[in-house]
Amino acid sequence: MGKVVMYSSVSVDGFVADENDQPGPLFDWLTSGDVPLDESGVLKVSQTSYDYIRPYWDQIGVTVAGRHVFDQTDGWDGKPPSGIDHVVVVTHRPAPEGWDPGAPFHFVDGVEAAVARAQELAGDRLVEVAAGDVGGQVLAGGLVDEVRMDVVPVVFGSGNATSGRSTRSTCWRILTW
Fold first, then answer.
1. What's the whole-model pTM score?
2. Which SUPFAM superfamilies match (predicted)?
């Protein structure tokens, strides 16, 4: 089975989103370069960023994300991001009405079931868990093998250290784990 990696881009002061629950400039690096990162042509990074992130992304078989992230991204229009094969969405709700049942998205109730399903789908490839509320639950459940956080040179001052939470103590717990 593949390793389970909790991943996020975070601000220098440890936030994954601003006070309005938006990533703000945390992902600007994904569109500010001239080297295509994937086949979409939308993501363009510097050569240094490409050399760093592409080998990691090539190892990912499945991403586990919460329903909040799924809804914020409009389900990536039914196509898993960055060439990933599948997305497992942790949710207590069914797939959105009209959702294409053939899209490689799996709606699962509970983090333990989500990680198990993701590992089944990923085989020997990595299972990436989006940090935030679901990532915190997976980490607390002892299901994470590795934590990977890319620190972006941005200071929010306040915001969400995990989705739905806005306490500085949560932020520092994540960074010092």
1. 0.84
2. Dihydrofolate reductase-like
